[in-house]
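User: I'm putting together notes for a lab meeting next week and I want to include a structural view of one of the chains we've been expressing. I don't have a solved structure, so I'd like a prediction I can at least talk through. The sequence is below, exactly as it appears in our construct file.
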Amino acid sequence: SVFSRNGYGSIVSYRDPNLQETIEVYQGIVDFVKNFDVNEREMQEYIIGTMNHWDAPMSIASKINVLNQYALTGINEDDRNALRQQIITTTKEDIQALAKDMQYMLEHAVICVCGSAEVLKAHPRFDVIEDVLLKELP
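Assistant: Thanks for the context. Below is the predicted structure for the 138-residue chain, given as structure tokens.
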């Protein structure tokens, strides 16, 4: 999953052979988040994992790319430090409080699946199936 600073979010699966099961898992995210229950050690492990991603070592090219993104979006070092502090002090209650946002996201979701026409036609959920590879661009 990816959640941006502007409020957009996406949940993505890649090369997933279990389309229906994956959609059901996504629909269960609200209950999972609402009932998120971990002990202090487990929460620390989640935080450490997040910080490993957040402060991961980068090549010079990656650093330049990130610094360009910050310059274009107006993010400064104070913003990064504030977010880092939020991550470090996150509690399970903070995670549980996200259930409302997840519910809103799922209620307004657009589901897009790339796959074989046969598989998609067999799935009752999809109203529109288009062959985008053969579609002419405007």
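A couple of points you could mention at the meeting. Strands lie at 2-3, 9-10. The longest helix spans residues 40-54.

User: Perfect, that's what I needed.
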